[in-house]
Amino acid sequence: MENELVQPGLFRDRREAGRLLATKLTAYANRPDVVVLALPRGGVPVAYEVARALDAPLDVFVVRKLGVPGHDELAMGALATGGVRVLNEVVQHLGIPSTLIEAVTNHELTELERRERLYRGNRPPLDVRNRTVILVDDGLATGSTMRAAVRALRQQQPASIVVAVPVAAPESCEELRTLADDVICAVTPEAFHAVGLWYQDFSQTTDEEVRALLAKRRVVEEGRSTQEPVDRADVEVVRAAAYPLAGSERDYDPLMGRIGDAHFTLLGEASHGTDEFYRARAEITKRLITEKGFTAVAVEADWPDAYRVNRYVRGETDDLDALEALADFRRFPTWMWRNAAMVEFIEWLRAHNDALPPNANKVGFYGLDLYSLNASMKAVVHYLEKVDPAAADRARERYSCFDQFGDPQNYGLMARLNVSKTCKDEGRQSAG
Questions:
Q1: Within-domain flag for 84
Q2: What is the pLDDT of residue 376?
Q3: Domain around 402
Q4: Which residue in 67, 221, 320, 425 has its CB near the most CB atoms, within 10 A?
Q5: Are 210 and 290 found together in one domain?
Q6: What does the alpha-carbon distance between residue 123 and residue 192 come to, in Å, rounded to a whole number?
Q7: What digits encode the pLDDT tens for the residues 147-163?
Q8: Which is it for the CA torsion 210, 216, 217, 218, positive or negative?
C-alpha cells in the first residue's frame, strides 16, 4: 500500500481490517485444505472476516508465554493449543533448571486450558495436520507472540503456515518470513509505533465476543442457519434463572435470601462497569451491612489508598468529606473507585458508623491489591518512624526480603509457583 494511504486510524475496527486483509488472501479461498486460526482475543474479529471471505473453518490458537521467573518479560519459550511447548535459547544461556521450567509450564498450562474451555467448550481443536493454516492476529508490533505461535504450530505438522495481519512493523513482518511459509502484512508503515494507532476503534475484544464469533462461524460450517448461533437450551436456562430489576427497593430480596447466613459475600467483576453497576454494588453492600451484620468492605484496591477511606468512615481523619478521602486513588483505573456512586456510598458508610452506639463495631473499608506492596511497606515504615523509630528500623530490615524480586508481580509469581522462599513471616512481623 502506498505511503500516502497509510495513516493513523486507517481501519475503523478489527472487523473492517479483517475484510481488507481477506482481499490479500484470495489465493486461499474455497480450498478444502485451508483453516484459519486466530490468536485470541484481538485476532478473532479479524480472523472471523477472513474465514468468512475464504469460506474456511475458524478456530482459536491460544499461546501462553513461558516467562523467566523474576523476569517475566523475558520469554524462555511458549505453550500453545494442544499442549505443545517450545523452548528457546534463553534456557541454555541462563542455565534454567528443568524443575523451574516444569513449574512455570504447569502454571501456564492451567491458564491455557481454562481459556481453551472458555472459548471452545468441550469441542476439540481443529486438526491441522497436512493442512494450510492461516494464522491471524490484529497486528504485529514486536511479533514475539506470533513467532511463538508459528514455532508451536509447526510441531502439529501442517502442510504450510501463512501469517496474516492487517498492520505490522516492517521489521517484524520481515523477521516472520524466516519462520512461516508465507507472510501477508496488508500495511507496513515505517512510523509504526503501536498496533492500536492504526484503528479508530481498538477497544478490548471480550471473551463473550470471541465465543459468539466462533459459534457463528461454526454454525455456517455445519450447514445450519446463521440466524440463531446460540444454543437455545442455554438461553432458556439463563431466562429461567434471570430476575428482573424494576427499580424497587425490594429488588435484591431474592439475593439476600440466597446469601442466607454466609460470612463472606463476593460481588463479581461486573461491578467494574458503568454507573448502574456501581450503584447496584453500593445498594447490595448497604443491605449486607444493615441486614446481615457485615462489618468489613474489602475491595480490589491498593491498601494505603483504601485505608485512608477506612479512617474517614470511622471518623479518625481530618478529611472533610468522602471526595477528599478518596484523593489517594490515582493509579489506573481511578474510575473504579473515584466516581460519584462511590462518593455517595462512602458518605453513607460514614453516617452509618456515626449513628452506631459508642462501643459498637464500626464497618471498615480495606484494600486487598498486591500492586500496592511497595507503597504499603512505605506506609508502615512511615507510621513507625513517627511512633517507634526502632521498630521502623526492624521493619526496614524485614522488608528487605522483598528487594530481590523487584516488581511485586514477580514476587507473587515466585510465591505462587513455590520456587522461592516467601516473605510471609517477615511481612507479618513487620506489620505486627
A1: no
A2: 79
A3: 388-431
A4: 67
A5: no
A6: 38
A7: 888 988 998 999 999 99
A8: positive
